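ok so heres the complex, two chains, lmk if somethin looks off
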Amino acid sequence: MHITVFQIIALSVYAFIGIYDALETDIGLSRPIFAGLFAGLVMGDVKLGLEVGATLQLMILGVGTYGGASIPDYMTAALLGTMFGVVSGQGLTFAIGLAVPIGLLLVNLDVLARFTNTIFQHKADKYALKGDIKGIERMNILGVLPWGLSRALPTFLACIFGSTICGTIVKDLPTWLMSGLKTSGGILPVVGIAILLRFLPAKRYIAYLIIGFIAAAYLKVPMVGVALAGLALAFIEYQKSEHNTKTLEGVTEDE
Amino acid sequence: MNNVIDSAKNSTVQPAASESKITQKDLRNVFIRWLLGGQIGWNYERMQGLSYCFSMIPVLKKLYKDPEDMKKALKLHLQFFNTSPFTAPMILGVDAALEEKEGMKSEDAIVGVKTGLMGPFAGIGDSIFGVIAGTVFGSIAAYMGQNGIATGVLIWFIYNLFRIGLTYWFIGAGYKQGVKIVANVGGKMKSLTSAANILGLTVVGALIPTVIKAQIPLVFTMGKVTMQLQSIFDQIMPCLIPVALVGSIYWLLGKKKMTSVKAIWIVLVLGIIFYNLKLLA
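and the predicted structre for the whole thing:
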């Protein structure tokens, strides 16, 4: 299948707006699953888009750019993975196999964007000396360009050369590698979960990790159900902790 | 954080004075600027510095009619700043109240409050709104998405709209309570964070058996008896392989010089090797 001009523009514009949303409004557009769904709609295969987005989403979950760290760009990866999956006609396995390396390689452009914005910061310093408010405002707004282009440009180029690249890959890539990549795709959420456990106080609250596991593995409770159970446990902890603080305060006041 | 609380107790800064120059509309403008432009100027040198200055401009225009004061203020706010984008409105609010009261006379106090607040608020904001919300809503959306259902995406979207409303409330709270907000909110935030962590970990516990697809296809044949390795593992515990994998990568990530990107490459390559050795499918 060939990609249309409309599709190329739609995916590139989404990539630009997506990274803006990640930085600012965060209504969710930068999440791989939103991007996958969008690419699925544009490319005419919603199910594939959702599946690609969901798989990539699980690799990243609550992992964010805390303190300015760069993380794999699975948003752009979900757009391109879905696009490649549809254009090549090879489906999910192929899409994931390409998306993961794409996401990892694009990290470098994230670093470049963050670096480029230093220029605007320095120009803003000069405007501040002159008391030029408009100038400072302009510098901050211009900052959106390195960010947006770091996502939109690779998307645009990949879409243009997409069908040629796909043809070559499909022809030349051996089955052992493609099927191997599928297996890798299945276990990659492991890394996302492990990173998350490093972020969270996993050792202190390991009991809750086990409770969640039992609910899903043995009792087959669906995810929303587990989240509700987690909410109940969290509420108990909150009340207990607030109660303790109050008692402590009471003691100090008596003294 | 304790220093901030102490200075809050001793501070002369009172909650917004009755004859305040800053209006609700100014605060709303600051919030909208932060919401739409609070991180686009992000750079390695001063991180959110440029965008913080950009967001404060409506308040600065109101307070500093003297051009020299304005220059001072612009320079001050262009300095290094970095916190969680979600809790930043609270700091903007506190800062606005402080500057309204003291103006550019108290540069040190402004810098002190900003740097004192950004650390603790980064921790709280990133863990509750970043890690936990991302985990819970991401898990639900991905779990449904893997089955081709988009409802989870919609749930996440609705939550995000709700969160934007909440962060708007933060700026008013910061302005009204001033530096005292740390003492008032700090304690509650600690309970909230541990509660949120529990919710997150419960969901992660459920994720391990549901989303990791890993089986061992290896079959032993001894004479007429065939033995599937997977069924033995299943008798010990369901999803033993996913649990073991998570454990190994968790351990690996604790190693020095190990980064998440390296870990992903390692798993990518090992997945291909193990598949071809028929150890994983």
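quick notes: Chain A touches chain B through 114 residues (CB under 8 Å). thats all i got rn
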